[in-house]
Amino acid sequence: MTNSLGDIQNAKAIIIFGANPAVNHPVGFGHFLKAKERNNAKIIVVDPVFTKTAAKADHYCRIRPGTDIPFMYGMLNLIFQNGWHDKKFIADRVYGMEDIMEEAKKWTPEKVEDVTGVPAEQLIQITRLYAKSTPGTLIWAMGLTQHTIGSSNTRMAPILQLALGNMGEEGGGTNILRGHDNVQGATDMCCLSHTLPGYYGLADGSWKYFAKSWGVDYEWLKGRFRAKEWMNKPGFTLSRWWAGVLDGKDGNDKVTNGGTNLKMLFVMGNGITSVAQQAKIKEGLDNLEMLVLCDPFVNEAAILTDKQDDVFILPSATQFETSGSVTATNRTVQWRTKVVEPMYESKTDHEVMFELSKRLGFYEQFTAGMKIKDNKKDFTWPEDATNEIARIIKTIGLTGWTADRIKKHTENWHMFDQISGRGYGAMKGEYYGLPWPCWTEKHGGSPILYNINRSVVDGGMGFRNRFGLEHNGVSQLAGAGSAPKASSNKDGYPEITRDNIEAVLGITLTADEKAKIGKNWKVDTSNIIAEKCMERGIAPYGNARARAKVWTFPDQIPMHREPLHSPRQDLVKQYPSYADKANHYRVDTKYVSKQSEKDWSKEFPINLVTGRLVNMNGAGMENRASKYLAALTPEMFCEINPNLAGKLGIRDGAMMWVHSPEGTKIKVKAKYSFSVSEDRVFMPFHFAGAFQGEDMSHKYPAGTKPYATGESANTITNYGYDIITQIPETKGGLCRIEMA
Ligand SMILES: Nc1nc2c(c(=O)[nH]1)N[C@H]1C(S)=C(S)[C@@H](COP(=O)(O)OP(=O)(O)OC[C@H]3O[C@@H](n4cnc5c(=O)[nH]c(N)nc54)[C@H](O)[C@@H]3O)O[C@H]1N2
Ligand SMILES: Nc1nc2c(c(=O)[nH]1)N[C@H]1C(S)=C(S)[C@@H](COP(=O)(O)OP(=O)(O)OC[C@H]3O[C@@H](n4cnc5c(=O)[nH]c(N)nc54)[C@H](O)[C@@H]3O)O[C@H]1N2
Ligand SMILES: [Mo]
């Protein structure tokens, strides 16, 4: 999120792609409604389903799943044609917009209508409204990401905002509504397989920086791997670990994993039934040697599997039984305080991890980093963990996030403005929750990314200089005069290093400073670079251009590609998917070969959209185990348009089979609804405990069966994974429906 929920109140227009905040962020959605009241802000919702958010919108565009790129190019085409774009912003602060302009020309309103299903007239109407009502904020969530082209979608949306000059503005920006509490923190700390914490990547230099910062021997770290080369390779993803177990057997995707398959799965805080392709997941679970599930509830992976031995359910404590820092969707941090001691025999997640590291023989190395700062004999949990993060993570500017400061913010939360985040009284000069980057222990945080109307000390900055000084002879630095306010350097400038600091900042370092300073701002644990930058009003990461064009990606600019399972075969030929990708996070992944295997739409003519309910969360066990929440939706269901249901002879409330191209099926209750058109259905994914028509509720340990069980929508979500991130295509697929 470049701005914040509160800042949405400053918007004059709000365009929402693939998010349903009225249901999934109902408290945050209050800010959207206030923007409507305060500014008469217009809300535009682009969604294949008429959601509760759409019900509050001024305009609802019923888009076909997976066609947001044509929709946004269609908007851009009109914007460029009418000269509604921000020419100065583009000239000074963007790289590669010419290529976008060329591609946009192809997407006339009529063509957009054909591909997306949104009437040309409506596209023209909403584009004019959005382009003219600045600042406009752009919202997205899972409707853009869960596609084979999800990563292109998430580039396209910021490009639209860059074209309109809506970036770095109050009331503008791209505000991506994140999922769980602290999912931003989990991402920042990298609960992922392709980078070290803080997005440092897996290169040797990063490993060495972390070895030093953690107080462990680099050679020891290296020795944990089978061979050095594996240190630099990404691991499996959550969506595809099962392929690692099945290891190419029975026609499953082949893996590159050093000649061995995965044998053990340790799960801490994922429901497993929330992941696409449940039939494959079941096969993966069944073939494991050992399965460990740490969860406050019975993790329904244990119910799905037929595995009888070596399945361990460890009772985890909840977040109410522990404390520590958590990061919110707008990059702010808060301190969470323990409410009660861990109940019964449950243990907190960190205790489980500490005990495990003792048994596995690396507790000392695991905890060494927490003792480095004051050369301590022992550490205090969790304060020293938070301080360790502050000491090491420079890339996103966490230096200012010390435990003491975070606690002070949380204790004084009433001393901050709800919209701007600015502090009053004792908190003056700081923004609530110290939104990152928070460059130094004195810096007050940066509530609006890329805002050059503020000084760096007051949270201003340009775009990060991350990809060199030039590409193909074109400068990557921002244009003359576009540095943040009150900067000693008025123009674009590179990221700050030991070698260029004196020249860029116009200063001279002392010999002592030169001896202490790190190689560049990312690894400068002395923090001299950041401190000097603050004095001169310079952002340590440089002042560069945002890239509309990424020369290392399969599509340098976002391009439309039909979903792997598309109802429009004519368009599949015109806009085919990517070439198959070998060794994608260790798994050979199919794209065009799957898409062109046959005309899937003949057998499976209906679009399948999955999503959320307000009373349930994720895999849903937590809520289905609550009598009152379960009572609101006691059974798994599928929203179906009465006209479609009528054609199939299915009555409201009748049971029906939903089949997927993967050869799987689920039995669910029909729920008549006009929220979906006749060509698509909507299903929540919060149910588990039944599998392809079989009730498995006898498998729950005595006394643990939730109040509601049912089929998981993920049993029929289709094959398909994003080309960069490998997120499953759970929002674009096909199905066939028949009476049960
Ligand atoms: N009550 C509740 N709240 C939650 C959660 C929960 O499970 N329950 N989960 C949390 C988590 S982890 C997350 S990530 C967020 C997710 O929050 P959201 O992203 O809002 O959640 P979804 O309902 O999955 O999807 C949003 C919308 O995307 C639409 N959509 C599907 N395909 C497309 C498409 O191709 N284009 C467009 N434009 N739209 C499309 C769907 O119809 C749906 O209305 O919610 C968080 N909040
Ligand atoms: N078809 C389809 N599938 C989807 C999606 C979709 O839109 N459509 N959305 C995807 C998205 S965005 C997400 S984020 C995932 C969400 O799916 P999950 O990550 O599975 O989400 P949850 O059910 O919220 O949480 C997982 C587990 O964590 C446990 N838990 C809660 N607190 C703690 C704790 O403190 N410690 C431990 N150890 N465990 C705890 C819960 O009991 C639960 O079993 O689903 C994904 N799957
Ligand atoms: Mo999520």
From TrEMBL:
Principal localization? other
Q: Please name the InterPro entries in this protein's record.
A: Asp_de-COase-like_dom_sf, MoPterin_dinucl-bd_dom, Mopterin_OxRdtase
Where does the record place the Molybdopterin dinucleotide-binding domain? 607-732
Can you quote a single GO CC term? cell envelope
Pfam family, any one = Molybdopterin
Among the GO biological process terms of this entry, one is: anaerobic respiration
- List, for all copies, the residue spans of the domain called Molybdopterin oxidoreductase: 1-359
- List, in alphabetical order, the Gene Ontology terms for molecular function in this entry: 4 iron, 4 sulfur cluster binding; electron transfer activity; molybdenum ion binding; molybdopterin cofactor binding; oxidoreductase activity
User: Which coenzymes or cofactors are required?
Assistant: [4Fe-4S] cluster
- Top-level taxon of the source organism: Bacteria
Q: Does the UniProt entry include the keyword Transcription? A: no
Respond yes or no to whether keyword Cell cycle is given for this record: no
Localization terms from the record: Cell envelope
What are the entry keywords?
A: 4Fe-4S, Iron, Iron-sulfur, Metal-binding, Oxidoreductase
Q: Family assignment?
A: Belongs to the prokaryotic molybdopterin-containing oxidoreductase family.
Q: What is this protein called?
A: Formate dehydrogenase
